[in-house]
Amino acid sequence: MKQIALITGASGGIGSAIAAKFAVSGYAVVLQYNTNHAAVENLIASFPADTDYLCLSCDLTDSDAIQTMVSEIHRRIGTISILVNCAGVALKQKLFSETTDAEYRLIFDTNVRSMMQLTRLLSEDLRRNHGAVVNISSMWGVSGASCEVLYSASKAAVIGFTKALAKELAPSDVTVNAVAPGLIQTAMNQHLSKADLDAFCAETPLNRLGTPEDVAEAVFYLATARFVTGQVLCCDGGYTM
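RE: above sequence
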């Protein structure tokens, strides 16, 4: 019987690459997205013909919607063995003094609270299946970024959650790790100018931007490495080393 991997944010650049990696590796996949159904349909079209999948639209800022999604997963496809918490949002760069309470709630509800709630609701699945959790943080969660304080703080919270939960679930043979991507070629970074991107590449030891597939490889490694837990794998071309 196929193991089932749930990937949140599967309509995004990184999430779709992660989902594709699990699909071609023989996993059944559950794809969570918010509103971009067309992107998920395109993703499914790239899967091997024998892939088992389930697509669910869910607003992760809505606690009741998360609960409903978990119930649907159990009813329609089964229990989860691998959870990849990939969904996330960022703000346009601005001074912390200019941020609002609404932006704070958006960032932390999406990037932190929803991840914690979903992991908690699936914790029994993970214990039963000796599963794995991989959370997507950011290099800014490791080092912090000026004018991205709320985002950096939320991604640092992901790291703290990862390390603590790894200790708690280790006796149940469940691994919990995080990937901290650097600057990846996705829609989230399309607002950056060519000059900005060139300057960033010049500061990156590998001298290029990352791809969603780079992150997917890191996630898949951590999801399947059974003697690695509580780790943060920086997938940033050496930027933060």
